[in-house]
Amino acid sequence: KAKADGRNHYQFYSQEMTQKALERVALESSLRAAIQKKEFEVFYQPQMQIINGVARLSGLEALVRWRHPQLGLLSPAQFIPLAEETGLIIPLDRLVMEQAISQVAQWDTAGLDWGVLSLNVAPHQLEREDFSVVLASQLKQYGVAAERIMLEVTESQIMQNPDKAIAMLKQLRALGFGIAIDDFGTGYSSLSYLKKLPLNKLKIDQSFVRDLPEDEDDTAITRAVIALGKSLGLSLIAEGVETAEQQHFILQNGCDTIQGFFYSRPLPAAEMSVLLSAKA
Ligand code: C2E
Ligand code: MG
Ligand code: MG
Ligand code: MG
């Protein structure tokens, strides 16, 4: 009896695992097909600089979505992890970059000022020698200067192979790209490496912003990150700003640029065009 139960249990478990594996395989192949069919759509979220109470657009972050024919609009959390595991993130990010760069070039043609375009760099992408080559050739094709692109990398990405990352980032800086650390404060940061990195900007992670200004730890961390960024001569941006109170705290403490639902959610290109036209 015990043995039979055990076997049933084993069979049940095995079936469940098979099911999971099949779902994964199905998702992986549909992700692969979606890249071929270019079912991905880049959304754009404004980054606002506030000086003397006047907000102006300083740039846009490109954020990918998957327009799935059956499931609708999927957010990065639903497919980026699998794309990273399978290496499909490389062709996927090429699509994102191409779509975003051709879009900003169209805005240029229309006389709309989009500022600086931020692109998220996937893990391992930094280690690829061809990354800067592909990006530079896409920019050349559309006539967009590297100086108008900010690359967002994470601390953990850099710390995986710091010497190699530093070399790559220096190369990208030499080509004109800006470099920002995304989700700053959530990774394994080494302050001694931070000093050696060729950075332009720190993005204060939204987990510190969420409970401002009430949470004492978060107020202390946010102030410390701002002081650190300033002492290293970096620009700062706070992400995940949803309320006037959060914005007030951030501005009061010396960071003048914010990104978050308080100003705008990430928008499809057509809606972003309307917003840019209204500002022009
Ligand atoms: P991230 O680069 O840190 O992007 C910021 C995320 O915060 C975005 O989520 C954005 O929609 C969200 N966000 C912005 N303002 C607010 C706010 O006020 N409140 C809240 N609750 N959230 C806010 P999203 O678009 O779901 O992207 C999640 C992550 O997926 C990104 O985090 C980035 O790491 C990754 N990702 C997105 N697009 C791409 C891409 O094209 N390529 C790569 N490699 N990664 C991407
Ligand atoms: Mg980002
Ligand atoms: Mg972030
Ligand atoms: Mg992130």
From TrEMBL:
Record domain EAL: where: 24-280
Span covered, complete protein: 411 to 690 of 690
Highest taxon of source: Bacteria
Name under which the protein is recorded: cyclic-guanylate-specific phosphodiesterase
